Amino acid sequence: MRSRVFFAYSREGPAVSELVRFDGVVKKFRTPRGGRQTALDGFSMTIPRGSLVGLLGPNGSGKTTALKVLLGLVRADQGTLRAFGHDLPRDQRFVARKMGAIIEGPAFTPSLTGHHNLRLLGELHGVKKRLVDEVLDLVGLAEAAHRSYSGYSLGMKQRLGVAAALLPSPELLVLDEPMNGLDPEAVRDMRELLVRLQREREMTVVVSSHILAEVELVCDRVTIVRHGRVICDDSVETLLARGPARTVLRGPEVSSARELLDAHGYSVIPAAGSELHVSTSGPSSEVLRVLAEHGVFPDEIRREKASLEDAYIEAVRKADEERAQIVDTNKLSTRGRPHAS
Ligand SMILES: Nc1ncnc2c1ncn2[C@@H]1O[C@H](COP(=O)(O)OP(=O)(O)OP(=O)(O)O)[C@@H](O)[C@H]1O
Ligand SMILES: [Mg+2]
Q1: What's one GO MF term for it (predicted)?
Q2: Which residue has a Cα nearest atom 26 of ligand 1?
Q3: How far is ligand 1, taken at its centre, from the CA of residue 257, in Å?
Q4: What's the mean pLDDT in 209-221?
Q5: Which one of 240, 267, 290 terminates a domain?
Protein backbone atom coordinates (compact mmCIF):
# COMPACT_ATOMS: atom_id res chain seq x y z
CA MET A 1 0.00 0.00 0.00
CA ARG A 2 1.24 3.47 -0.76
CA SER A 3 2.28 5.51 2.20
CA ARG A 4 -0.17 8.11 3.42
CA VAL A 5 2.64 10.35 4.49
CA PHE A 6 4.29 10.97 1.17
CA PHE A 7 1.09 11.68 -0.65
CA ALA A 8 -0.30 14.01 1.98
CA TYR A 9 1.53 17.03 0.62
CA SER A 10 -0.52 19.90 -0.58
CA ARG A 11 -0.82 20.63 -4.26
CA GLU A 12 -2.54 23.97 -3.93
CA GLY A 13 -2.25 26.35 -6.82
CA PRO A 14 -1.70 25.47 -10.48
CA ALA A 15 0.61 22.54 -11.20
CA VAL A 16 4.07 23.98 -11.70
CA SER A 17 6.10 21.83 -14.07
CA GLU A 18 9.17 23.90 -13.34
CA LEU A 19 9.65 23.53 -9.62
CA VAL A 20 12.68 25.78 -9.20
CA ARG A 21 14.31 28.44 -11.34
CA PHE A 22 17.52 30.26 -10.49
CA ASP A 23 18.11 33.26 -12.71
CA GLY A 24 21.43 35.12 -12.67
CA VAL A 25 22.01 34.51 -8.97
CA VAL A 26 25.14 36.13 -7.54
CA LYS A 27 26.62 35.40 -4.13
CA LYS A 28 29.84 36.89 -2.82
CA PHE A 29 31.15 35.93 0.60
CA ARG A 30 33.24 38.26 2.71
CA THR A 31 36.64 36.80 3.44
CA PRO A 32 38.39 37.29 6.83
CA ARG A 33 40.87 39.71 5.18
CA GLY A 34 38.08 41.99 4.03
CA GLY A 35 38.03 40.71 0.44
CA ARG A 36 35.14 39.12 -1.47
CA GLN A 37 34.95 35.53 -2.63
CA THR A 38 32.54 35.02 -5.53
CA ALA A 39 30.71 31.71 -5.00
CA LEU A 40 27.87 32.24 -7.50
CA ASP A 41 28.44 34.42 -10.53
CA GLY A 42 25.17 34.66 -12.47
CA PHE A 43 23.98 31.14 -11.60
CA SER A 44 20.94 30.04 -13.65
CA MET A 45 19.31 26.60 -13.57
CA THR A 46 15.91 24.96 -13.63
CA ILE A 47 14.61 21.96 -11.74
CA PRO A 48 11.61 20.39 -13.50
CA ARG A 49 8.97 18.72 -11.31
CA GLY A 50 9.54 14.99 -11.00
CA SER A 51 13.16 15.10 -12.18
CA LEU A 52 16.21 13.62 -10.54
CA VAL A 53 18.88 16.24 -11.09
CA GLY A 54 22.61 15.71 -10.67
CA LEU A 55 24.49 18.86 -9.69
CA LEU A 56 28.09 18.47 -10.80
CA GLY A 57 31.16 20.66 -10.72
CA PRO A 58 34.71 20.86 -9.44
CA ASN A 59 35.46 21.61 -5.77
CA GLY A 60 34.61 25.19 -4.91
CA SER A 61 32.48 25.74 -8.03
CA GLY A 62 29.41 26.82 -6.03
CA LYS A 63 27.18 23.72 -5.76
CA THR A 64 26.68 23.83 -2.00
CA THR A 65 26.21 27.59 -2.05
CA ALA A 66 23.47 27.29 -4.69
CA LEU A 67 21.67 24.66 -2.61
CA LYS A 68 22.03 26.81 0.50
CA VAL A 69 20.51 29.78 -1.32
CA LEU A 70 17.56 27.58 -2.34
CA LEU A 71 17.08 26.43 1.25
CA GLY A 72 17.33 29.96 2.61
CA LEU A 73 20.55 29.24 4.53
CA VAL A 74 22.47 31.83 2.54
CA ARG A 75 21.09 35.04 1.06
CA ALA A 76 21.91 35.87 -2.56
CA ASP A 77 23.24 39.33 -3.42
CA GLN A 78 21.61 39.53 -6.86
CA GLY A 79 19.39 37.60 -9.25
CA THR A 80 16.01 35.94 -8.87
CA LEU A 81 14.96 32.59 -7.49
CA ARG A 82 11.52 31.06 -7.75
CA ALA A 83 10.42 27.79 -6.19
CA PHE A 84 6.94 26.21 -6.31
CA GLY A 85 5.72 29.32 -8.07
CA HIS A 86 6.87 31.59 -5.23
CA ASP A 87 9.62 34.19 -5.03
CA LEU A 88 12.49 33.49 -2.68
CA PRO A 89 13.56 34.58 -0.17
CA ARG A 90 10.23 36.43 0.24
CA ASP A 91 8.16 33.22 0.58
CA GLN A 92 10.91 31.10 2.10
CA ARG A 93 8.83 29.95 5.06
CA PHE A 94 6.06 28.68 2.81
CA VAL A 95 8.45 26.95 0.43
CA ALA A 96 10.59 25.51 3.26
CA ARG A 97 7.69 23.23 4.20
CA LYS A 98 7.94 21.55 0.81
CA MET A 99 11.66 20.82 0.93
CA GLY A 100 13.79 18.30 2.82
CA ALA A 101 17.58 18.50 2.75
CA ILE A 102 20.95 17.39 3.94
CA ILE A 103 23.69 19.90 3.37
CA GLU A 104 27.34 19.24 4.22
CA GLY A 105 26.59 16.20 6.36
CA PRO A 106 23.76 15.89 8.85
CA ALA A 107 24.38 16.65 12.54
CA PHE A 108 23.08 14.09 15.03
CA THR A 109 23.68 13.44 18.73
CA PRO A 110 26.20 10.55 18.84
CA SER A 111 25.04 9.06 22.17
CA LEU A 112 21.40 8.70 21.02
CA THR A 113 20.03 5.96 18.78
CA GLY A 114 19.13 6.67 15.17
CA HIS A 115 15.48 6.37 16.12
CA HIS A 116 15.79 8.76 19.06
CA ASN A 117 17.63 11.32 16.93
CA LEU A 118 14.83 11.22 14.37
CA ARG A 119 12.15 11.41 17.07
CA LEU A 120 13.69 14.66 18.31
CA LEU A 121 13.85 16.07 14.78
CA GLY A 122 10.33 14.81 14.14
CA GLU A 123 9.04 16.82 17.08
CA LEU A 124 10.37 19.95 15.38
CA HIS A 125 8.31 19.09 12.30
CA GLY A 126 5.36 17.94 14.39
CA VAL A 127 5.40 14.48 12.80
CA LYS A 128 4.06 11.29 14.34
CA LYS A 129 6.22 8.41 15.63
CA ARG A 130 4.84 6.19 12.87
CA LEU A 131 6.47 8.39 10.24
CA VAL A 132 9.83 8.05 11.99
CA ASP A 133 9.53 4.26 11.73
CA GLU A 134 8.43 4.58 8.14
CA VAL A 135 11.37 6.70 6.96
CA LEU A 136 13.83 4.47 8.85
CA ASP A 137 12.36 1.49 7.06
CA LEU A 138 12.47 3.28 3.73
CA VAL A 139 16.21 4.00 4.00
CA GLY A 140 16.93 0.45 5.20
CA LEU A 141 17.72 1.32 8.82
CA ALA A 142 14.80 -0.44 10.53
CA GLU A 143 17.05 -3.05 12.12
CA ALA A 144 19.74 -0.61 13.24
CA ALA A 145 17.22 2.00 14.40
CA HIS A 146 17.79 1.31 18.10
CA ARG A 147 21.56 1.26 17.98
CA SER A 148 23.44 4.35 19.07
CA TYR A 149 24.43 6.74 16.27
CA SER A 150 28.08 6.68 17.36
CA GLY A 151 28.25 3.02 16.30
CA TYR A 152 26.85 3.65 12.82
CA SER A 153 29.02 3.15 9.75
CA LEU A 154 29.42 6.09 7.35
CA GLY A 155 26.81 4.56 5.01
CA MET A 156 24.33 4.23 7.88
CA LYS A 157 24.97 7.82 8.93
CA GLN A 158 24.33 9.03 5.38
CA ARG A 159 21.12 7.01 5.22
CA LEU A 160 19.97 8.44 8.55
CA GLY A 161 20.63 11.86 7.03
CA VAL A 162 18.34 11.04 4.12
CA ALA A 163 15.73 9.72 6.57
CA ALA A 164 15.89 13.05 8.44
CA ALA A 165 15.46 14.94 5.16
CA LEU A 166 12.36 12.83 4.43
CA LEU A 167 10.68 13.66 7.75
CA PRO A 168 8.88 16.78 6.51
CA SER A 169 7.39 14.63 3.66
CA PRO A 170 9.02 16.91 1.11
CA GLU A 171 8.08 17.40 -2.50
CA LEU A 172 11.66 18.41 -3.24
CA LEU A 173 14.56 16.52 -1.70
CA VAL A 174 17.94 18.30 -1.73
CA LEU A 175 20.97 16.16 -0.96
CA ASP A 176 24.49 17.56 -0.92
CA GLU A 177 26.90 14.74 -1.75
CA PRO A 178 24.94 11.88 -0.18
CA MET A 179 27.29 9.32 -1.72
CA ASN A 180 30.43 10.85 -0.26
CA GLY A 181 32.72 8.24 1.24
CA LEU A 182 30.33 5.33 0.73
CA ASP A 183 31.52 1.87 -0.30
CA PRO A 184 30.25 0.51 -3.65
CA GLU A 185 27.42 -1.45 -2.03
CA ALA A 186 26.25 1.56 -0.03
CA VAL A 187 26.47 3.72 -3.17
CA ARG A 188 24.23 1.21 -4.96
CA ASP A 189 21.75 1.26 -2.04
CA MET A 190 21.69 5.06 -2.09
CA ARG A 191 21.18 5.02 -5.85
CA GLU A 192 18.25 2.64 -5.56
CA LEU A 193 16.75 4.73 -2.77
CA LEU A 194 16.94 7.93 -4.85
CA VAL A 195 15.30 6.23 -7.83
CA ARG A 196 12.53 4.80 -5.61
CA LEU A 197 11.87 8.21 -4.10
CA GLN A 198 11.56 9.71 -7.55
CA ARG A 199 9.56 6.95 -9.22
CA GLU A 200 7.43 5.52 -6.42
CA ARG A 201 7.05 8.57 -4.19
CA GLU A 202 6.93 11.12 -7.02
CA MET A 203 9.55 13.30 -5.41
CA THR A 204 11.78 15.73 -7.23
CA VAL A 205 15.37 15.12 -6.16
CA VAL A 206 18.49 17.26 -6.52
CA VAL A 207 21.72 15.58 -5.65
CA SER A 208 25.21 17.05 -5.81
CA SER A 209 27.93 14.53 -6.43
CA HIS A 210 31.43 13.92 -7.73
CA ILE A 211 30.64 10.32 -8.68
CA LEU A 212 29.85 10.82 -12.36
CA ALA A 213 29.16 7.16 -13.13
CA GLU A 214 26.45 7.10 -10.44
CA VAL A 215 24.93 10.34 -11.63
CA GLU A 216 24.81 8.89 -15.15
CA LEU A 217 22.98 5.83 -13.83
CA VAL A 218 20.33 7.57 -11.72
CA CYS A 219 19.82 11.14 -12.87
CA ASP A 220 17.69 12.24 -15.77
CA ARG A 221 19.09 15.77 -15.74
CA VAL A 222 22.54 17.19 -15.17
CA THR A 223 23.59 20.68 -14.21
CA ILE A 224 27.31 21.40 -14.41
CA VAL A 225 28.69 24.34 -12.44
CA ARG A 226 32.05 25.99 -13.03
CA HIS A 227 33.30 29.13 -11.28
CA GLY A 228 29.81 29.87 -9.93
CA ARG A 229 28.13 29.69 -13.36
CA VAL A 230 26.09 26.93 -14.93
CA ILE A 231 27.84 25.71 -18.06
CA CYS A 232 25.36 22.94 -18.85
CA ASP A 233 21.75 22.38 -17.70
CA ASP A 234 20.23 19.58 -19.75
CA SER A 235 18.82 16.09 -19.81
CA VAL A 236 21.46 13.37 -19.50
CA GLU A 237 20.25 11.99 -22.82
CA THR A 238 20.80 15.30 -24.66
CA LEU A 239 24.15 15.86 -23.01
CA LEU A 240 25.42 12.42 -24.00
CA ALA A 241 24.05 12.71 -27.53
CA ARG A 242 25.68 16.12 -27.97
CA GLY A 243 28.82 15.12 -26.13
CA PRO A 244 31.96 13.85 -27.76
CA ALA A 245 32.44 10.24 -28.70
CA ARG A 246 35.37 8.49 -27.15
CA THR A 247 38.33 7.03 -28.95
CA VAL A 248 40.09 4.43 -26.83
CA LEU A 249 43.78 3.78 -27.46
CA ARG A 250 45.69 0.92 -25.96
CA GLY A 251 49.32 -0.10 -25.87
CA PRO A 252 52.74 0.69 -24.40
CA GLU A 253 52.99 4.06 -26.14
CA VAL A 254 49.97 5.63 -24.46
CA SER A 255 52.04 8.02 -22.33
CA SER A 256 53.63 9.64 -25.42
CA ALA A 257 50.22 9.59 -27.09
CA ARG A 258 48.79 11.39 -24.06
CA GLU A 259 51.34 14.21 -24.17
CA LEU A 260 50.94 14.59 -27.89
CA LEU A 261 47.15 14.69 -27.90
CA ASP A 262 47.12 17.00 -24.87
CA ALA A 263 49.34 19.40 -26.80
CA HIS A 264 46.90 19.22 -29.73
CA GLY A 265 44.00 20.30 -27.50
CA TYR A 266 42.26 16.94 -27.01
CA SER A 267 40.66 15.99 -23.66
CA VAL A 268 42.56 12.89 -22.65
CA ILE A 269 41.86 10.62 -19.67
CA PRO A 270 44.27 7.78 -18.80
CA ALA A 271 42.43 4.59 -17.84
CA ALA A 272 43.34 1.19 -16.43
CA GLY A 273 45.07 -1.46 -18.55
CA SER A 274 47.31 1.00 -20.50
CA GLU A 275 44.26 2.61 -22.04
CA LEU A 276 43.79 6.21 -23.00
CA HIS A 277 40.32 7.71 -23.46
CA VAL A 278 40.28 10.58 -25.93
CA SER A 279 37.17 12.74 -26.31
CA THR A 280 36.62 13.41 -29.99
CA SER A 281 33.84 15.22 -31.78
CA GLY A 282 35.36 14.28 -35.19
CA PRO A 283 36.29 10.85 -36.51
CA SER A 284 38.90 8.71 -34.74
CA SER A 285 41.05 8.91 -37.87
CA GLU A 286 41.94 12.51 -36.91
CA VAL A 287 43.45 11.23 -33.67
CA LEU A 288 45.30 8.50 -35.57
CA ARG A 289 46.67 11.03 -38.05
CA VAL A 290 48.13 13.22 -35.26
CA LEU A 291 49.75 10.17 -33.67
CA ALA A 292 51.07 8.74 -36.95
CA GLU A 293 52.60 12.09 -37.95
CA HIS A 294 54.67 11.88 -34.77
CA GLY A 295 55.54 8.21 -35.14
CA VAL A 296 53.26 6.99 -32.35
CA PHE A 297 51.33 3.81 -33.16
CA PRO A 298 48.97 2.32 -30.55
CA ASP A 299 48.40 -1.45 -30.53
CA GLU A 300 44.64 -1.08 -30.46
CA ILE A 301 42.10 1.62 -31.26
CA ARG A 302 38.33 1.52 -30.83
CA ARG A 303 35.47 3.98 -30.70
CA GLU A 304 32.93 4.11 -27.86
CA LYS A 305 29.87 6.13 -26.96
CA ALA A 306 30.67 9.07 -24.70
CA SER A 307 30.14 8.63 -20.97
CA LEU A 308 28.94 11.38 -18.66
CA GLU A 309 32.56 11.73 -17.55
CA ASP A 310 33.64 12.49 -21.14
CA ALA A 311 30.79 14.96 -21.58
CA TYR A 312 31.62 16.60 -18.24
CA ILE A 313 35.34 16.95 -18.99
CA GLU A 314 34.54 18.35 -22.43
CA ALA A 315 31.98 20.86 -21.07
CA VAL A 316 34.44 22.07 -18.41
CA ARG A 317 37.26 22.32 -20.99
CA LYS A 318 35.09 24.38 -23.37
CA ALA A 319 33.94 26.67 -20.54
CA ASP A 320 37.55 27.24 -19.47
CA GLU A 321 38.58 28.03 -23.04
CA GLU A 322 35.73 30.55 -23.41
CA ARG A 323 36.60 32.10 -20.06
CA ALA A 324 40.28 32.43 -21.05
CA GLN A 325 39.23 34.14 -24.30
CA ILE A 326 37.01 36.60 -22.42
CA VAL A 327 39.87 37.39 -20.00
CA ASP A 328 42.26 37.93 -22.97
CA THR A 329 39.75 40.19 -24.75
CA ASN A 330 39.22 42.20 -21.55
CA LYS A 331 42.98 42.61 -21.11
CA LEU A 332 43.37 43.78 -24.70
CA SER A 333 40.53 46.28 -24.47
CA THR A 334 41.90 47.61 -21.15
CA ARG A 335 45.34 48.03 -22.69
CA GLY A 336 43.91 49.72 -25.76
CA ARG A 337 41.95 52.23 -23.69
CA PRO A 338 43.48 55.72 -23.53
CA HIS A 339 44.57 56.86 -20.06
CA ALA A 340 42.34 59.41 -18.39
CA SER A 341 44.14 62.71 -18.26
N1 LIG B 1 30.87 30.88 4.24
C2 LIG B 1 31.78 31.14 3.31
N3 LIG B 1 32.66 32.14 3.46
C4 LIG B 1 33.60 32.42 2.50
N5 LIG B 1 33.69 31.75 1.34
C6 LIG B 1 32.84 30.73 1.13
C7 LIG B 1 31.84 30.36 2.10
N8 LIG B 1 31.14 29.31 1.61
C9 LIG B 1 31.67 29.03 0.41
N10 LIG B 1 32.68 29.87 0.12
C11 LIG B 1 33.47 29.89 -1.12
O12 LIG B 1 32.57 29.89 -2.21
C13 LIG B 1 33.06 29.06 -3.26
C14 LIG B 1 32.02 27.99 -3.57
O15 LIG B 1 31.95 27.10 -2.47
P16 LIG B 1 30.95 25.87 -2.43
O17 LIG B 1 31.07 25.25 -1.09
O18 LIG B 1 29.61 26.33 -2.85
O19 LIG B 1 31.56 24.91 -3.55
P20 LIG B 1 31.18 23.41 -3.92
O21 LIG B 1 30.95 23.39 -5.39
O22 LIG B 1 30.10 22.92 -3.05
O23 LIG B 1 32.54 22.63 -3.62
P24 LIG B 1 32.78 21.12 -3.13
O25 LIG B 1 32.67 20.25 -4.36
O26 LIG B 1 34.19 21.14 -2.61
O27 LIG B 1 31.78 20.79 -2.08
C28 LIG B 1 34.41 28.51 -2.78
O29 LIG B 1 35.41 29.34 -3.29
C30 LIG B 1 34.32 28.64 -1.27
O31 LIG B 1 35.60 28.80 -0.71
MG1 LIG C 1 29.95 21.37 -1.66
Answers
A1: ATP binding
A2: 59
A3: 36
A4: 91
A5: 240
